[in-house]
Amino acid sequence: MKVEAIQVLFSKFKEDRLFHRYITNNHIEPLLKNLGDSVAIKIIGTSVLKQPIYSVTIGSGKKKILMWSQMHGNESTTTKAIFDLLNTFISAETSIKHILEACTICCIPILNPDGAEAYTRVNANDVDLNRDAQLRSQPESKVLRTVYEDFNPDFCYNLHGQRTIFSAGKTNKPATVSFLAPAQDEACTITPNRMIAMEIISNMNDMLQQVIPNQVGVYDDAFNLNCVGDTFQSENKPTILFEAGHYFNDYEREQTRKYIYMSLLTSLDYISTVNVDGSFHKPYFDIPENDKCFLDIIIRNAKIDSNSDVTDIGIQFQERLVDGKVFFIPKIEKIENLDLYYGHREIDAKGHLVLDDNYLPVKINYENDFVILNNKKTPILSK
């Protein structure tokens, strides 16, 4: 499919009732009821706190794709993209009909509904579900495993979100979308199974380079069998990790959801029309590995007190859930030379004093929406 056509579909079928970062069962349940008879919706289990975990299955083809989102409850961008995709699939669009004829797609929109409600990475037992693939100590882990075994997918999509710190290589380009074909053994062998995942990633990267050039990365493939992707890959199921990252001034991740949607649709189109056997996996190795080169804000050339040399101040946003909305709280993480870092926003202090709200020297862990710069109140969150 052409990039322009996919962008038109996104604009047409974007689910406007899902927005910003806080997405829970309360948000998706009304949408599930409106999807219609072309999808099969099931409650496949319950969470620690007995919230339902849903699956949505659509399509009639032989190629089976299993995708799950919000395994980490505070990573909701891919959930929004799933509903954008579902809206597309239940439409009468002829341009995507071939996907549903070739594929059967099973989606778990929110695997960790307790974590989603609390806006935490972990579940209600304080367990990271993506480190529970072997023990399967948690009900959510058991639900995913049961669906995996019953559905018996040909491809697995492990959908996540990543922090704003990540860059595409050691560059000033954010890793807006990242991928990984997880390892399936300690040696990180490039197996036929991984080649299939790499080929699909390469195809998505080709598309993304047309819209976000140099803003795609891949993760280090260090093997950890406790991770779900590594486990499924080790069981010879081609598995792809998707990571929704940062786009300029897009802390709500509304622009990134578009690129995730485009990636999902591109990959499904590719799977539905091609016999993916890994033959075209090599471009995967041209995608730069993620690095950690970004801070949310850098105040450069600042003086901390009248006797100090100029230095830099690095600020990272802390995500806080307050009354059902996520707020971004600036917190000073570094006071040092930050020449090796980039800021998503940068402020030049021009050698002036930067003080806290009490006109005292700023310190690590200082949290506030502003600083005193050159004796003037300077908002940090302003664009």
Automatic annotation (TrEMBL):
GO biological process: proteolysis
Matches recorded under SUPFAM superfamilies: Zn-dependent exopeptidases
Record domain Peptidase M14: where: 18-271
GO molecular function: metallocarboxypeptidase activity; zinc ion binding
Gene3D superfamilies, sorted: Zn peptidases
Active site residues of this protein: E243 (proton donor/acceptor)
InterPro entries per record: Peptidase_M14
PROSITE patterns, A to Z: PEPTIDASE_M14
Family: Belongs to the peptidase M14 family.
Protein name per Swiss-Prot or TrEMBL: Peptidase M14
